[in-house]
């Protein structure tokens, strides 16, 4: 798998998310400011609720813009076995049941699943529990991640 292609796919996905979020923010803003939604009494809260929604959507749009900036500046480096898994690594894992999983470790804001050919790739940051557990590991190492009450085990079978 090509890490630069994965990066481009992340950027496209984030751009689509930003577009949808900006459209939702605009619709909520229009609802909040529409003359028909002026409160007639203290129980008439449609305009107020839409204003809260517009504010939340605007914050989400700003978070996506920041993620886009981080991903545009990101330069995945080749794997260095001496340093172990670092930001930019494409990691192949096998879980305790023998199921394969592919993880691309990138900057914040890119948590998503992408289809690359016939393989599904989970994009995570180093702040995610699995991302933190993978940092510094090498091929053949095992990692454990606590998710709620469950403990998940993985073996690193490949790093690119």
UniProtKB/TrEMBL annotation:
Keywords noted in UniProt: Elongation factor, Protein biosynthesis
Superkingdom: Bacteria
Domain Transcription elongation factor GreA/GreB C-terminal positions: 119-159
InterPro entries per record: GreA/GreB_C_sf (IPR036953), Tscrpt_elong_fac_GreA/B_C (IPR001437), Tscrpt_elong_fac_GreA/B_fam (IPR023459)
GO MF term list: translation elongation factor activity
The protein, known as: GreA/GreB family elongation factor
Organism: Ideonella paludis
Source species taxonomy: Bacteria, Pseudomonadati, Pseudomonadota, Betaproteobacteria, Burkholderiales
């Amino acid at each position: 798998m090509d890490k630069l292609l994965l990066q481009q796919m992340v950027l496209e996905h984030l751009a689509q998310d930003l577009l949808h979020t900006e459209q939702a923010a605009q619709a909520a803003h229009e609802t909040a400011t529409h003359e028909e939604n002026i409160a007639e009494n203290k129980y008439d809260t449609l305009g107020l609720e839409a204003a809260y929604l517009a504010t939340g959507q605007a914050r989400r749009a700003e978070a996506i813009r920041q993620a886009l900036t981080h991903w545009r500046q990101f330069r995945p480096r080749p794997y260095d076995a001496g340093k172990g898994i670092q930001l930019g690594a494409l990691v192949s894992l096998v879980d305790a049941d023998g199921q394969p999983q592919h993880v691309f470790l990138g900057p914040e804001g890119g948590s998503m699943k992408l289809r690359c050919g016939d393989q599904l790739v989970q994009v995570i940051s180093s702040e995610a529990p699995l991302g933190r557990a993978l940092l510094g590991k090498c091929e053949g190492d095992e990692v454990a991640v606590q998710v709620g009450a469950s403990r998940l085990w993985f073996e690193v079978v490949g790093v690119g």
